[in-house]
Amino acid sequence: MRPLTADETKTFFEKVARYIGENIRLLLERPDGLYCFRLHKDRVYYMSEALMRHALSFPRHALISVGTCFGKFTKSGKFHLHVTALEFLAPYAQHKIWLKASMEQQFLYGHHVLKSGLARVTENTAKYQGVVVYNMKDVPLGFGAAAKSTAECRHADPTAIVAFHQADIGQYIRSEDTLT
């Protein structure tokens, strides 16, 4: 477990900033103490500084994970967010999409969001902006990228894709058989 390098930090914060903007600061300086991001086996973990100090007493090969996994770096150096980061991204999300009940299950099966299933969208959402997807009861379901801006969504065909699926809470169930 080690701190992120300058390049890794830049790549990681650019990806997270697509969803929560300048609110990254709120993830690091929380009322319950200071938090940090650490890299272990190409995965970025989010943890309190106290937990990080305790984890340093273990050898690297003995650690499986520590804290909450935010995502992983690919071999090419790109960063992919995991659905486990949703709990921390959702409260600070700047751009949100709410789904109708009929589209909720489709999104949880890994499908993109269609205009016909869109209930609401945050104003001034730009094209390809990171969005957090909610149901109508304000429960975060996952995240993705806006395929159309807010203005384009108003005039889109009902079968047009308005948000690309990236991760959702249904992934736990879909990947259950591969975990054993």
The SS-based structural class is: alpha+beta
Rg calculated over all Cα atoms: 17 Å
Terminal CA distance: 26 Å
Overall strand count:
12
Strand residue content: 25-35%
Unreliable residue runs: none
Described by the principal axes of the CA atoms, the overall outline is elongated
Helix count? 8
The percentage helix is 25-40%
- Write down the secondary-structure element order: EHHEEEHEEHEHEEEEHEHH
CATH architecture of the largest domain: Roll
> What would the average pLDDT be, to the nearest integer?
90
Number of domains: 2
- CATH topology assignment of the largest domain: Nuclear Transport Factor 2, Chain: A
Question: What does the main sheet amount to?
Answer: 6 strands, antiparallel
The top level CATH class name of the largest domain: Alpha Beta
Explained architecture:
With 180 residues, this protein is of the alpha+beta class. It folds into two domains: 82 residues, Nuclear Transport Factor 2, Chain: A, CATH 3.10.450.220; 82 residues, Archaeosine Trna-guanine Transglycosylase, Chain: A, domain 4 (Roll), CATH 2.30.130. The protein has eight helices and twelve strands. Strands 1, 2, 3, 4, 5 and 6 form a six-stranded antiparallel beta sheet that branches. A hairpin with a 2-residue loop joins strand 2 and strand 3. The longest helix is centred in the N-terminal third of the chain and has 15 residues.
Features:
Nuclear Transport Factor 2, Chain: A, alpha+beta, six-stranded antiparallel beta sheet, 2 domains, 180 residues, six-stranded mixed beta sheet, Archaeosine Trna-guanine Transglycosylase, Chain: A, domain 4
